[in-house]
Amino acid sequence: MTKLPIYLDNNATTPMDQRVLEAMIPYFTEHFGNAASSGHVFGRTARAAVEKSRAQIARCLHAASPLEIVFTSGATESDNLAIKGAAELLQEKGRHLITSLTEHKAVIDSYKHLEKLGWSVTYLGVDETGMISLAELKSAIRPDTVLVSIMAGNNEIGVLQDIQSIGTLCREEGVLFHTDATQAIGKVPFDVRDMNVDMASFTAHKIYGPKGSGGLYVRHQSGLKLVAQMDGGGHENGYRSGTLNVAGIVGLATALQLCMEDMPAEIDRLVYLRTRLHDGLKEKLGDVCVNGHESRRLPGHMSIALNGINGETLMMMMPEVAISSVSACSSGSGTTSHVLSALGASEERALSTLRFGIGRFNDRNDIDYAVDRIAEHGRTLRAARKASAG
After folding, report:
1. Predicted structure pTM score
2. Residue 255 burial by CB count (10 A; 0-12/13-18/19+): exposed, middle or buried?
3. Is residue 275 a contact partner of residue 366, using CB atoms and an 8 Å limit?
4. 60, 170, 289, 329: which is the annotated catalytic residue?
């Protein structure tokens, strides 16, 4: 029997894995020291845990050195530090920046902030599958371009950009490349050196770790010394001041390590469940359409438009199934998804879209239950719409 409620919104956040919690608990209790307090054993124990975690994360990302990992409060802070910190550092070299129209708001709003301060920004469009054009990116790069930021895995439609090709192009053009890899790291293979990434943002709560703990990879060979966006005690090699969240950092490293160990099998399992979800909805509702690229997407992610069905209304009819109609970071804004708009989706299609995030603790029973309920309520809504129109 299916256990209710069912959680299928793992792109917004994930439940913490019990193994992650167990690794964190000692750093809330007996190992509670401040990692900056090197004068006693409590501080040194905390510092040792931080540096062990830093090395662990560096190995998972294939970074050249643990010193390339900067700890933050999460991906939003990491995006802000990468974009604003690099722009301020390089403003004498150039004040032109490039990103895409489908980025997370943490990236787009950082760019808009810089626009207000005098930087010039090119916003690349995407095709109907959500992919940027490498040719358009290449043509957008100017002599005064200093930074390109393109998301690895899209939070709303799950599309995976060709980060390796983008990174290679930026490296050839001598332009820094940042990627918001929040949805990709821990879910698909991610090698910062092979992909020619200069900076990458990530966070724990998307990979079964704690909220409030994230990181930024900063490639040392890029010569970057980002301008800090938070002043204080000069922690994290001057990049980010503030007392380190030791338990959260341990949780982040543990969560990422577990993802790396299980990744091959987990990708296959999630793709199976995602396919089962899509095929079930298509069989029972007929007129459904995937938003974004059908194959170049995150394993457990599905954004699907149910023609003739209002997504918000359907969600209210089945509170026992947790899904979303838009990104959690956009929910409540009262505006149509900027990502779906960039794909050329009509307002009606955007309003009929549901986003599913299938995760570690979901199984086929969850998928089958969700498909049955969505189909049941969806048919009701379509019938009511047809009756009102007639």
Report:
1. 0.95
2. buried
3. no
4. 329
91 pLDDT above the threshold of 60: yes
Query: Token pair of 86, please?
Result: 């690099």
Q: One-letter amino acid identity for 121?
A: V
Q: Is 149 left (phi over 0), alpha (psi -120 to 50) or beta?
A: beta
Residue labelled with tokens 């390796």: 164
3-state helix, strand, coil split of the chain in percent (to 5) is: 45, 15, 40
Token pair, residue 138, equals: 């290449």
What DSSP line would sit under 266-282, residue for residue? HHHHHHHHHHHHHHHHH
Say how many residues make up the chain: 390
Residue with structure tokens 């009102």?
Answer: 388
Of residues 151, 261, 128, the one with CA closest to residue 202: 151
Q: Hey, what are 303's tokens? A: 């954004």
Q: If 0-12 CB within 10 Å is exposed, 13-18 middle and 19+ buried, where does residue 163 land? A: buried
Show Cβ contacts of residue 308 under 8 Å, excluding neighbours closer than 6 positions: 287, 352, 381, 382, 385
CB burial string 192-211: b at 16+ within 10 A, e below: beebbbbbbbbbbbbbbbbb
- Contact criterion met (CB below 8 Å) for 277 and 374: no
Taking a C-beta distance cutoff of 8 angstroms, is the pair 188, 298 a contact?
Answer: yes
CA distances from 66 to 54, 61, 326, 335 (A): 5, 10, 36, 41
Chain centre distance of CA 41? 37
Tell me which residue has tokens 């170049």: 296
pLDDT in tens, 167-186: 999 999 999 999 999 999 99
**HSE of 372, CA atoms in CB hemisphere, 13 A:** 9
Note the pLDDT tens digit of each residue in 236-285.
887 888 999 999 999 999 999 999 999 999 999 999 999 999 999 999 99
Active-site residue, 329 included:
yes
**How many CB atoms within 10 Å of residue 94?**
17
Q: What Å distances lie between residue 53 and 18, 208, 341, CA to CA?
A: 18, 16, 40
Pick from 12, 5, 110: nearest CA to 324 = 12
How far is 243 from 371, CA to CA, in rounded Å?
Answer: 46
CA distance 97 to 28: 42
